[in-house]
Description:
Elements lengths: L8 H11 L12 E6 L2 E7 L8 E6 L2 E8 L18 E8 L10 E5 L2 E7 L23
Antiparallel strand pairs: 1-2, 2-7, 3-4, 4-5, 6-7
Amino acid sequence: MLMRTDPFRELDRLAQQLMGPGTWTKPSAMPMDAYREGDDFVVAFDLPGVTAEAIDIDVERNMLTVRAERRPVAKADDVQMELSERPLGVFSRQIVLADTLDTEHIQADYDAGVLTLRIPIAERAKARKISVGVGSGRKEISG
């Protein structure tokens, strides 16, 4: 159902970890899974520590864009950070959806740090049976 793959995704992820947090102009990638479940195409994004209000989902034609921002937790003045490994900043992912998906009826759920999008497969793309009629009414054309 996806139209494009990114062979350099792992290289991009490593580079982003080394370069620091993402910004709105240069967001970090977010891990995702995509699979078909019945009549739905499901895309799940890992966004631990992100509030539902900080997630932005847009669809323009067949381009799905998911953006999220994880901000630092407010700390008291007397707190001294010893180790900080959890990435902060902006995360974004764009995927091109096939024409066979119904982008008008996308459902989004966010639970336990996982954003799950369910995109129905369009009726015109579903498998269907075509009945074959028996030709009893044949007519002969005479010239």
